[in-house]
Amino acid sequence: MAVLAVFLAGIFILLAIYCATDPLGHGPMTKFPGFEVYHAELPAWSELPTVRDSENRLQRAELRFLNQIQGPESIAFDPLGRGPYTGVADGRVLFWNGESWSDFAYTSPNRSEICNPKASPLSYLENEHICGRPLGLRFSKKTGDLYIADAYFGLLKVGPEGGLATPLTWEAEGIPFRFTNDLDIDEEGNIYFTDSSYNYQRRNFIQLAFTAEPSGRLLKYNPTTNETMVLLQDLQFPNGVSMSKDGSFIVFAELSRARFSIQIWSLSIILFLLIFSNFPPQCRLFRYWLKGEKAGKSEVFAVLPGIPDNVRANEEGDFWVAIHCRVSMYAYFLGKNPSLSKLLLKLPIPAKFHFLMLVGGRLHAVIAKYSPDGKLLDLLEDQQGKVVKAVSEVEEKDGKLWIGSVLMPFIAVYPLN
């Protein structure tokens, strides 16, 4: 019995040393030894959206271009209605001519064989900073130029003929962009865009989400003066951007302020909720006023049921919000208890495991539609992730939703009628 006790004690000590030192580098923050975890604001329970799509309508979507494209984050159609155009994981912007895909544009001047097609979107992460990663795409209706938010090369522009995109801006107030994410254009040609972090790059997006670091910014680029202005700073993973129909405000998504509150009484309940619960922590849409008496001010536009990505307005002025998935109670502890979060992130638990806990064990896409005053108009889901597992952007065109995802090898198309 004594021998067994000594043996178990030895195993416990070795396990403790392993967890404390992580000699094999399995922990998600191994490459960021000085990382900090920040508090996320939490709303009252009464603010939680409770709407569900009981019909799982996204399961009716058609999967197009399966395995022909990898990680189509953003989808755009040019002023003549041609397309779609989409940015993919190997750094190219592709164009669908009605019969096949062709190369349209590049964001990196350093492309080589390491950028050649690979098996999955995640296979490109290691070389994204070399090959480029086009995220947000927007066409100028006046000039036909395509504006690109590339995660590593900043804000760029390419003409209607395509080719190597021209950099427009890559820093603001002396601080370089590290994670340029999405953009939109106003009637005067000004570009509004997000830099999700000036510390973490896109290939470390999971770490940025875990830490909720407030290093993101909302910015404006003036093509006439070539000036870049910081509109808002200290944001936690700002993401999608979309102009209102009348041009009076922009809407942008903020990811890491996962929001909800609930009373917890015992460790057993905490563990149960961590493992089995699927309460939806929230992120928010914000409205930043460009015109009127509130110009220059921001306010909460809508509280979301999950992790948002891009935002796109339709012709009526309503906003489609791509929501990767609803997230589990695990996200509550990452946001509510920074000290506990930091401890967990130091353990030799791979980032993939943390991410699965964050999303409730499986990917499952959600799409929400909001009116110009922030009212929820519709919500579509694939709760089991059978067809549309994840979504990064929703573009409405000709009665259909074109659905892209940075994680998937296809574009899903959902008929609204």
What descriptors fit this protein?
alpha+beta; Neuraminidase; 5-stranded mixed sheet; signal; 16% helix; 417 residues; Strictosidine_synth_cons-reg; glycoprotein; hydrolase activity; 27 strands; 7 helices; 2 domains; globular
What's the architecture of the largest domain in CATH terms?
Answer: 6 Propeller
Please indicate the percent range of residues in DSSP E strands (runs of 2 or more).
Answer: 25-35%
Distance from first to last alpha carbon:
71 Å
Could you say which overall geometry the principal axes of the C-alpha atoms support?
A: globular
Rg calculated over all Cα atoms:
22 Å
Q: What's the number of helices?
A: 7
Judged by helices, strands and strand pairing, the structural class is: alpha+beta
CATH superfamily of the largest domain: TolB, C-terminal domain
Strand order across the largest sheet: 2-3-4-5-9
Binned, the helix content reads 10-25%
Main sheet makeup: 5 strands, mixed
Unreliably modeled segments: 257-282
Question: Mind telling me the CATH class of the largest domain?
Answer: Mainly Beta
How many domains make up the coordinates?
Answer: 2
The name of the CATH topology of the largest domain is: Neuraminidase
- State mean pLDDT (0 to 100 scale): 86
Strand count: 27
Protein name: Strictosidine synthase 3
Signal peptide: 1-21
InterPro entries: 6-blade_b-propeller_TolB-like (IPR011042), Strictosidine_synth_cons-reg (IPR018119)
Domain Strictosidine synthase conserved region: 181-260
